[in-house]
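Human: Note C-alpha cell order:
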Amino acid sequence: MKSHLTFVVGFLMVAANAVAQNLNQPIPFDPQTKVGKLPNGLTYYIRKNAEPKNRAHLMLAVKVGSIQEEDHENGLAHFTEHMGFNGTKNFPKNELVSFLQSNGIKFGDDLNAFTSFEQTVYFLPVPTDSARVFLKAFDILEDWAHNVTMEESEINKERGVILEELRGGKGAGQRMRDKYFPIIMNGSKWGQRNVIGTEEILKNFKPETIRNFYKTWYQPHNEAIIAVGDFDPDQVEKIIKEKFGAIPAVPNPKPLGEYPIPANADTKVAIVTDKEQPYTIVQVLTRLPELQERTFADSREKIKRALFNQMLNNRLQELTKKADPPYQFGGSNIGGFLGKYDSFGSFVVAKTGGIEKGLKAVLDENIRVLKFGFTATELDRAKQNLLTSTEKRFKEKDKTKSEAFANEYMGDFVNEVPSMGIERYFDFVKAELPGVTLDEINAMPKQLISKENRAVIVLAPEKEKETLPKESQLLEWIDNAGQNVTAYVDEVITKPLLATLPTPGKVTAEKQIPEIGVTELTLSNGLKVVLKPTDFKNDEILFRSYSFGGTSLYSVADNLNADQSNVIAAQGGLADFSSTQLKKYLTGKVANVSTYVGETSEGINGAFSPKDTETALQLIYANFMLPRKDTEVVKGYLANMKDELVQKYATPDPQSVFFDTLSAVMSGYNPRRIPLKPQDVDKIDVDKALKFYKERFGNASDFTFFFVGNFKVDEFKPLLEKYLGSLPGTGKKEMYKDLNIRPLKGKVNKTVYRGIDDKAAAQLVYSGDLPYTPENITNLNAIEEILNIKLIEEIREKESGVYYIYAQSDASKFPKQTYSLSIGYGTNPGRVEELATKTLAILEGIKKNGPDQKDVDKYKIETKRQLEVQQKENRYWAAELQAAYQNGEDPKDILKEMKLIDGVTVASVKALAAKVFGPNLIKAVLLPEKKTAK
C-alpha cells in the first residue's frame, strides 16, 4: 500500500509541474457547452450529449423563489410553479400534461418542477427522434417563461391541491422549524419565509396578486434555458433565439435584491420540543461568507474543504464503532447555507439521556483537529479518494447522463459561477492536489470554529423538556469542549487482505447465449456465473447473486438471529481487518461489496471499477470465507439499535405506527413480520448469528452470480476461477420454505388514531393469488400506470382532494405466486371516506368497462420510451438476468418485453382487473387522535 501511494503522489507531482497555472485566473466555461445571452437578458446553455440516445433534458431555470415574495405573497413562488401545469397559451388547462404523457413523458417521474428560497426550476425530458415533440417542448418552455394563463378557475382548483401539500407537510419537523428558523436567521427575511406559504394566504390571495408576481419576476433576465441532449446544438440555438428572443425585456426591472443575515456576536440558541419528536438532535452552526467558485483559487479552496470534510467525518464515524458509542449519528461539514453564506456545522443525534456526551464527543473531534491537526496518512488517503472519484467522473465523461449536465448548469446559473467541465477539472485536481499541504488543512479550523455568527439548535421530545440543558449550560458545554483531548492515532494495516491466495478452481462448462450477449459459466465447485459485457459505462461493473434458503429455513425462535446474521458479520470486518481498517485499506479503490440475507434467499451484491476487479473478487471471497467477529463493535451496534427502538416507542411517529400496523395486517400478523421491540435486541446472540451466517454462505455450489459491465470474458475468467471457483461447495441445492405468510383475506378495515395534526392517510390494498406469467406481470404493471394517470386526473386535479396519490403493484413467484396492488394518498380527515369511495369507483369502472383507450396508449408509449433507455443500463440487465434465472425463465425472454407491452389492450387490462380487484381488500386509515372520518 505504501509503495502504491508513493507512486500516486509522485505521478501527481509530475502532473502539477506540467499543468500549473495562475490560480487567480477566472474559470473559463466548459468548451463543450455553448453559453449565450439574448439581447433581452435570457441566458442559455446548450450541450450535445448522447446519453441517453434520442433524448434531451430541457430546463427552464428562474432565479426567483420565496425570498423574493412580499409578506402577502408568501407561497406564491411555489404556487406559480404549480400553475405552469394548469394552463398556458398553447396548452389550456391540463392539456400540457396530457400531451406529454401521450408522447411518452411521465408526470412526476420525468415532467416536474421545484421551488426553493432562491429559484424555481422546471424539468422537461423529451425524445429527440420526434421533431414534432421536440419543437413542442420549446413551446412549453416558452409558455412557462412568459405565457402561463393563470385562469381564476384553475387557480381556485389548485388551491385545494397545494393546501393538501401544506397539510401533508405538517408534523413535528414543520412545527419545530417554525420556532427555531426565525431565531437562527437573526431577524432576517429568511426567517419569515417558508416555500409553501401559509394556509391563510393560500386560501385567500386574489388571482391578480399571483398574476402580478408572475409578471414581475418571470422576466428574461431572470431566466435560463438549459438544453442538453442528442441533438444539433446549432439548430437548438437557432430555436432558442427565435422563440425566446422575441420576449420583450422589461424596462426598469425589479432587482432580485440582497437579503443579508445580520451578524451576531453572541450565540443564537433555539431549544425546541415537540410531542411527536422521537429523538434529540443538537446542531451547532457557524455562518461563513459564501465561497463562490469563480477563480481557480476558489476551486482549490473547494478541494481543501472536501479533504477536510472527508477526514473529519471519518473520525466521527470511527466513534460509532466503539463498544459504547457516544451518539446514534454525528457529523461535521463545511458547506452551503442560504443566500450569500456558507456554514460550518456539527450535529449529533443523541442517545437517550446522552445530549452532553454526544455533543461533547462531536465537538471534541473538532477541537482535536484544531489543537493537533490531521495526520499525514489521513491526508494521503483523502487525496487518493478525491482523485479516484474525480477520475471516475472523467472516465465516464462520454457516458454521463444529460440530466447530470443540466443540473450542473442550473446551479451555475443560479449561483453565477462557471462550470469548467470534467476534463479541465480532472487536470486541475491532478495538478493542485499534491500541493495541498497538511499545514494548510490543519490551519482551517481556526477560521471555522468561532463564537461569532454562531447558532445552536436543540430539537427534542416534549417529554424530555424538563431534563434538557438550559441555554447557559449548553453554551458552557460547547465552549469547554476538547479540554482533555490528545492527538489522534491513525491505525493502519499495511498487509494484504488475503494472507494466502486461494487455489483456483476451473471452468467446467461454458454456454453462450448470443441473442442477449451472455456467457454462462459453471465452475468446478458448482457455482454458476452469468456474464454480460457491455459498453454502457466505461468504469462500472455491477454484480448480484442469490442462493435459495434465507431465513425461511430457521424457526421463529431463530428468525431474529438469522435476519441479523449478515449485519452482525459486517460489523466485524473481514480477515484481520476491522470494519474501520477495511475502509482505510480500500482507499483509492472503487469496490463496494455487501451481503444480504432475505426471507427466501441470500447473496452478495455490489459494484466496482474494472481496475479494481481483483480487489472486488477478493472481498467476495473474504465475505464467504473470512467473516471476522468483533465483540466490541457488535456490542456498540446492538446498544445503538436498542436505544433507537427505545426512542421510537417512547415517542411513536404516526406514520411509523401506521405502516407498522399495515405491515402486520399484510402478513396476517405473522410473528416474523411484527416490528422489533427494544427487548428483542437482548435476544440477539452474536455467536448464533455468525453461525447462521456461515451456514448461509458455506456452500458456494448453491450460488449463481451475475456480472454486467465493462469487462472482457476471457480476461475475467481466470479471476473468477481463482476467487469464486476456490470457494467450498457441497453440491447440495437448498430450497426456501413456504412460511404461509399472507395478507388477511376478505374485506379488512383498520383505523389507526395517531398524531395531533389535522391530516389523514389511507392505503387501499388488494391481494391474492395470481399465476406468475409474463402476460400477467405486464398487464399488472399496465393497471398500476393507468391508475396513476387516472387517479391524478380525477382525485387530484378534478377533486382537488390530494397532493399525492399513487398506485403500486407487486408480484412474486415464490414462495407462492401472488400479487398485491395498493393505492395510497394523504388528505383532509373529513374526506378520507369520500375519496376512498371515488377511488374504488374508478377501479370498479376499469373492472367493468376496461380503461380508456387513451390511457392504455399513454401507458404503452411511456413504458416503451422508458424501456428504450433502461435497456442501455447495466442495472437493468443485472436485475433482469437475476430475475430470469431465479424464476426459472428463459433469459432470452428479456428481449420480449417490448412485444409484451405492445400486446396490452383495453380487453387484456379489463380481464386482469377482474382478477386483481377481487374479494381481498385491506383498507387502512390513519386519522388524528380523537378524530374520525366523516
About this structure: The longest strand covers residues 760-769. The chain has a mean pLDDT of 96. The longest helix spans residues 774-798. The radius of gyration is 29 Å.
